[in-house]
Amino acid sequence: MREEFAIKHQDIDSYNYICGRIKVLETNLLSKAALEELLHLPISGIYKEIIETPYRSFITGSDADSISKALFARYRAELSDMEKYVPIGFINAFFRSKEIFLKIKKWALVSSNEELEGLDRELKNFLETGEGDFPLEFKEAFDAMSKVKDYPFKAGWLLDLYYTKYLYHSAEQTKSELIKEFFNTYREGKLSIFLYRLSNFAISKEIDEKDFLEALHLVLKLFPDSAVSNNLKGVKTVDEFRELSRETFDEELRNKLLSVLEKCKYINVGIEVVFMYLKRLEFEVENLSTIVRGKSTGMNEKEISERISVAYA
Length: 313
Fold this sequence. Notes:
Elements: H1 16-25, H2 32-39, H3 43-50, H4 64-82, H5 88-109, H6 118-129, H7 136-146, H8 152-174, H9 177-203, H10 209-222, H11 227-232, H12 238-244, H13 250-262, H14 271-296, H15 301-308
Helix pairs in contact: 1-14, 4-14, 5-7, 5-8, 7-8, 8-9, 9-10, 9-13, 14-15
């Protein structure tokens, strides 16, 4: 596997410096109380608070768009900084791979003669020819989505499923029980949410039952050892599925993931410390962005709060 996507193992002592540094960086993460305080402020007030945090180095203006851009700019900068201390494949796998899958979807659905350079050109060549040393899930996703160009909604399903498969497979390669637990929790939750939402569409006749069953069979094929698959083997109708399943919500999954991250507090050295910090920062950026965007589009505090209150560590 090429270096950009290889999950390399390092001696635990190699993380001593970065783990010590992360203990300091964690003090900059916003508390739940601080986040809730921002919820009650106008955009101008949020700007005044954010300018006093590490995001200040990335803010170019006081409007919602500038603040949002600064949030993600800091996050990307943190990822690049971590590459100095942990394998780049680890960072790419768990914190940049969604962008890669979205790029793969674009290439699968839209024909283009755009000139690509560097890694993008090599990746696209791998997708089209199979020549190269990239993760197999990239090629599998590309081939599957290329076959449903006339059904973009199916391409969205395929992206989510292959992305989930890739994350879980990458987690297995880390040999970290905690990271594997995190992505097993993620996998089970995402599959449950995906199938239940799809069953709602089938019941409301927005999609055909055969489309739902096609998606269900793909889940059983891609995740044969998952708890979801084990529970749904032999299901032949939407009604049978509903009898065996209960609705799972995004908030419920996020809380479960945060509970797994809490266990990292008892680990002082190791790749888990890096993983926990970057995941908590990711959640913070997502929540801050939700607040800023919500304010800018006229959402009330209750609507915004429902999207973030149960999803923050």
